[in-house]
Amino acid sequence: MNLARLALNFKGLKYKTQWVEYPDIAPLLGSLNVTPNANPRAPPYTLPAARFPNGETLQDSLIIAAKLEELFPAPSMRFDDPIIPNIQKAVMRAFLPLFAIVSPSNNRILNESSYTYFLVKDAKDVAEYGPDPEGETAWEAATEPLENLAKLVQGPFVLGSEVSYADFVIGGFLRHTWRVAGAEVLERVLRMDESGKLRGVYEGLEEKGLLERSD
Ligand SMILES: N[C@@H](CCC(=O)N[C@@H](CS)C(=O)NCC(=O)O)C(=O)O
């Protein structure tokens, strides 16, 4: 689940989703004069992108969330908390190995043109942790990073009792795992963290209804 959607849900804003197939992302965002991603290692155009009522279109979850925080300051996502970059790094470390387990299920949810694009582009990441029919190498590689991520969570949410953007970074990846690979794979990920902190974040976001919308 993308983090811009979580931010929109958290702010209680009305929005409409336009789904875009992978090969159509660059032509569409280019035609809308979106500023290309600053990171030279990222594709120039990525989703999520958001078009605001004044016609401005922004891409990148963090940039979209920052704009939403500026336009709608309450409730705050505690966006400037210094833990956010640490959570982002810890999530990437934990989910990169899990990519090999989750991404083969992409054919369950992607339409054909997107799946073909995805196979060509991302096959190298899957190859890094495979081939491993049971995915055990990937599970082992994810164990310690998942535990380290959980240590950053005060409980029930990252910063304690209040939800913040840091929870969206964790919750977005967990929801993605659920959506693409299914409930059993998500359950195994959550069980790997014996502290139960990651489950706490996920279930806390679920209880608040923030994960519900997927249209
Ligand atoms: N930092 C970006 C990353 C987004 C990203 O990588 N999006 C993928 C889809 S999940 C994408 O649009 N890829 C386009 C491509 O690979 O051409 C964000 O969080 O907004």
TrEMBL record:
<protein>
    <submittedName>
        <fullName>Uncharacterized protein</fullName>
    </submittedName>
</protein>
<dbReference type="Pfam" id="PF22041">
    <property type="entry name" value="GST_C_7"/>
</dbReference>
<dbReference type="InterPro" id="IPR004045">
    <property type="entry name" value="Glutathione_S-Trfase_N"/>
</dbReference>
<dbReference type="InterPro" id="IPR036249">
    <property type="entry name" value="Thioredoxin-like_sf"/>
</dbReference>
<dbReference type="Pfam" id="PF13409">
    <property type="entry name" value="GST_N_2"/>
</dbReference>
<feature type="domain" description="GST N-terminal">
    <location>
        <begin position="4"/>
        <end position="70"/>
    </location>
</feature>
<feature type="domain" description="Glutathione S-transferase UstS-like C-terminal">
    <location>
        <begin position="91"/>
        <end position="193"/>
    </location>
</feature>
<dbReference type="InterPro" id="IPR054416">
    <property type="entry name" value="GST_UstS-like_C"/>
</dbReference>
